[in-house]
Amino acid sequence: MKNINKLFLLIIATVLVLASCRNEDLVRFPELEDGANVRVVVDPNSSFFNFENLEAARFKYDVYSLNTNIEKVDIFIYFVPINGDPQVRKLLETFTQADFDAGNGKISREYSAQQMVDLFGLGSLDNLAGGDAFNFRNVTTLANGRVFSDSTIVSDAPAFGTNRPGSITANIIAATASTSFTSSFSTFVGCPSSLGGRYKVVTTATSTDGCCPTEITVEYETTITQTGATNYTLTDFSSGTYAAWYCAPYALCASTFEGLGATALDVCGSVSLAAPYWGSKGEGSVDDGTGVITIQWANVFGDAGTSVFTPL
User: Fold this and answer.
1) Which sign does the torsion angle of CA 284, 114, 94, 87 carry?
2) Are 211 and 291 members of one domain?
3) CA dihedral (226, 230, 231, 233) positive or negative
4) Could you read off the pLDDT of 242-282 as tens digits, one per residue?
5) Which three-class secondary structure string do you get for 184-232?
């Protein structure tokens, strides 16, 4: 025990000596520099191009900045048709410090569907379809030469062609992770949507797990909650089916899946469904006459089913 105490005291003494011998002149912290503060806020009342009235449709957004050292803000855009390959990006507009100063740190912009058609040489509004998307990218250059770019958004890289990497790579998609910089925002061609409400769901499904190989039918009630113009959330992606399969053998019960939730998107009657686990995805449609939604879904394990949502 004495030897252990000695060793402990020796270690303490050594640490104290090393600390007392530290040369403060060698301790340096780099001077911190302000980054780019460029935020984009989309007008929720004009967030997409209404397919039912494209002539009057408008997409509106505001750009905010607290910076006083902006050389330029380049807003790039590329067109992703629902049927076809993404188009090479175009430079939509460039803002300077003078533009922000003139608006007291705010710039407002409004674009028509016709302007998008003209920019990409699509001919006429008739060549737009529900689900066509326009994705915007912000590349900001400060007066000191630093570039806050979109070069890390790898999923969109094929649409960009040759993309010059920036000196500061962006790690922010939209504005969900930060209130100071928006690197990406989007709009699309859509239709007014009103799927929110209470539904009775009947699902017929088959699992690939050995616990439950036979086809089952599950009845469930759920609420679809509207969170945006065409966006929705649900409490349970599979409408009780996962719990019916996996509660008894694996203790994965209703509370597990309802806590994880799911999201849905309605694009002119075509509905997509997704959940943040097991690669759970589904697609389907809405019956205009009855409001019944039918979704075919599956996950990465091969579990699959068809869920029919009937309004209550």
Assistant:
1) positive
2) yes
3) positive
4) 999 999 999 999 999 998 989 999 999 999 999 999 999 99
5) EEEEEEECCCCCCEEEEEEEEEECCCCCCCCCEEEEEEEEEEECCCCEE
Flag whether pLDDT at 5 surpasses 50.
no
The span from the CA of 143 to the CA of 147, in Å, is 9
pLDDT, tens only, 206-221? 999 999 999 999 999 9
User: Is 141:72 a contact under the CB 8 Å cutoff?
Assistant: yes
Closest CA relative to residue 72, chosen from 13, 6, 138:
138
| Nearest Cα to Cα of residue 131 among 173, 92, 80, 76 | 80
Q: What's the domain range around 136?
A: 39-190
Q: How many degrees, rounded to 5, is the angle at CA 149 between CA 148 and CA 152?
A: 125
- Domain termination residue (choose one: 190, 222, 256): 190
Q: Tokens 């910076």: give the residue.
A: 67
Torsion sign (Cα): 300, 304, 308, 312:
negative
Q: Is 131 left (phi over 0), alpha (psi -120 to 50) or beta?
A: left
| 102 & 120 share domain | yes
CA distance 217 to 236: 16
